Amino acid sequence: xxxxxxTARHAALSRAIARRIGVEMDAAGxxxxxxxxxxxxxxxxxxNSLDQEDRRLFYFLQDLGLLKTAWEEAMLPSGRIWRIFYxxxxxxxxxxxxxEVETPKEEEGLYEALPAAVWARDxxxxxxx
Length: 129
What we know:
The structure is a single chain. The chain is of the alpha+beta class and 129 residues long. The protein has a single domain (7-102), classed as Arc Repressor Mutant, subunit A, CATH 1.10.10. It is 51% helix and 16% strand. It contains seven helices and three strands; from the N terminus they run H-H-E-H-E-E-H-H-H-H. It has helices spanning 7-21, 25-39, 52-63, 91-98, 110-113, 116-119, 121-128, and strands at 44-46, 67-75, 81-89. A three-stranded antiparallel beta sheet has the order 1-3-2, covered by helices on one side. Helix 1 (7-21) packs across helix 2 and helix 1 (7-21) crosses helix 4 (91-98). It is elongated. The mean pLDDT is 84.
């Protein structure tokens, strides 16, 4: 199944990278573009097309759960088995990490929630006594 490259795919991967490794969105966007350039319009990229530095990046992103690997074997005419490795985007994980996360509101502490009159109570008793 092929899917066209679009800015939403780049944005989702950028947010997922930024949240997983804690980098700024600019740096995450550059990494996402670097990764997506290998995929083009496909969902899979063949491992043979990666250079050594990018392969390390792909393994790093696999460790973070953002990429997956698969392989298949083909029988060569000589009888040898040829193993072909593929990389694919872990779409479920990317979607999970790219979702907007609602930050919980900080609950006000017990003492901060009390009105100022509570703190003045001792002063009021002293004046009335």
